[in-house]
């Protein structure tokens, strides 16, 4: 769980550069980052809105286990 200070800093960065804020929270190769980058290229305001949504409401801890689990048949 991120502290309030971390979330506040990520929100400030997301307002200035939306993909960078998402990158700090979810990583550079995540789906959230790619969507945010595309939305920011298409329009700055949709990129900010999506970045704030991803930072505040999407929990990365619940997905970390799935990302790091090895593929098993």
From TrEMBL:
<dbReference type="GO" id="GO:0016020">
    <property type="term" value="C:membrane"/>
</dbReference>
<keyword id="KW-0472">Membrane</keyword>
<dbReference type="Pfam" id="PF01679">
    <property type="entry name" value="Pmp3"/>
</dbReference>
<keyword id="KW-0812">Transmembrane</keyword>
<keyword id="KW-0732">Signal</keyword>
<keyword id="KW-1133">Transmembrane helix</keyword>
<feature type="signal peptide">
    <location>
        <begin position="1"/>
        <end position="23"/>
    </location>
</feature>
<dbReference type="InterPro" id="IPR000612">
    <property type="entry name" value="PMP3"/>
</dbReference>
<comment type="similarity">
    <text>Belongs to the UPF0057 (PMP3) family.</text>
</comment>
<feature type="transmembrane region" description="Helical">
    <location>
        <begin position="35"/>
        <end position="58"/>
    </location>
</feature>
<protein>
    <submittedName>
        <fullName>Uncharacterized protein</fullName>
    </submittedName>
</protein>
């Amino acid at each position: 769980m991120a502290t309030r200070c971390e979330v506040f800093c990520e929100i400030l960065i997301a307002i200035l550069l939306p993909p960078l804020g998402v990158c700090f929270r979810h990583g550079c190769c995540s789906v959230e980052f790619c969507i945010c980058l595309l939305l920011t290229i298409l329009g700055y305001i949709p990129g900010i809105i999506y970045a704030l949504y991803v930072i505040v409401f999407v929990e990365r801890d619940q997905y970390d286990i799935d990302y790091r689990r090895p593929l098993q048949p």
